[in-house]
Amino acid sequence: MPLRFLTAGESxxxxxTVIVEGLPAGLLVDRTxxxxxxxxxxxxxxxxxxxxxxxxRVEVLGxxxxxxxxxxxxxxxxxxxxxxxxxxxxxxxxxxxxxxxAARRVTRPRPGHGDLAGALKYxxxxxxxxxxxxxxxxTAARTAAGALARALLASLDVTVTSRTVAVxxxxxxxxxxxxxALLALPDEAPxxxxxxxxxxxxxxxxxxxxxxGDSVGGVFEVLARGVPPGLGSHVHWDRRLxxxxxxxxxxxxxxxxxxxxxxxxxxxxxxxxxxxxxxxxAAARRFVRPTNRAGGIEGGMSNGxxxxxxxxxKPLSTLPRPLPSVDLVTKEAREADVERTDxxxxxxxxxxxxxxxxxxxxxxxxxKFGGDHLEETRRNLHGYRAALASF
Length: 391
Known about the structure:
The protein has helices spanning about 30-40, 100-105, 115-120, 130-135, 140-155, 180-185, 195-210, 240-250, 265, 270-275, 345-370, 375-390, and strands at about 5-10, 15-20, 60, 65, 70, 75-80, 160-165, 170, 220-225, 255-260, 280, 285-290, 295-300, 300, 305-315, 325, 335. About 40% of the residues are buried. By secondary structure, it is of the alpha+beta class.
């Protein structure tokens, strides 16, 4: 069965929930590891006030016994601590509060957000009905699901991490595919970048935007080392690995573009300067590449090199100094409503990018290698790797 997940919950509702189906039995579920990813998602330079309120911890409600998956759907819950301040506005029964302050209605849509499009789609004059689910708060549930997928990949010798490529016009130097520098970064690092000098410049760009009542965009990159060749397929559009990863990264709120490897740069190059030459390492009995401009994917399939996918984050649409808008009820020109926001959540976006990449890669591993129990999946993978070594 393919790996799939479904999240539910609103930004200021009681909790976020996620059900993950398709994990093989026997996978160790370490709640501290899931909580670590949830904390990482809350960190990074440029975050806003809500991160000082929430203290995300996962609760395992089903599909796990004695810290091991059973092969049945796994149900996880992450409570919203801030819900205590929103009980009237977000209650699931009764009528809306008559008091405007308690109702917390949003009638002045924010340019760049889903407020207006959602209000028109669902025929509501209160954009709160839309923004509560459109909020990036939902990605906490995805991060918890991704932590399960990460555990599965780790048991199959695949390592996934992320890095901060750029904040505004400050660009970090490239990192090599062995990932040691990135993996050595502490969880509390302000950016996922090994260069302290570049981090200081990124922080200055964030500070300048914050002082101006503005937001700023950036770029993150997810890297997956140890991915075997042959995941994905060339035979149909929806089975191509780069297409699946691209859709997963684009599903992250505020991500407006994606590239695989040096995909964007390749558009201005000749083929001789873009494609990765092929060699053979007789000692390791594997095909090798001196470069990895393709980002580990060719023809819709992984090629054995490190998978590299970038997400391009637009500036967030809630601004302390709001842009012009129109009231949904009166149709009068007004300034847009202001919700709590970040200046840039670039580290968090990278963590969510890791989660989405883990979910896609874990699904592809199970599609190719199957297994109702983790040991069966491992045996199938080891047999495949042995066959490749004798190819």
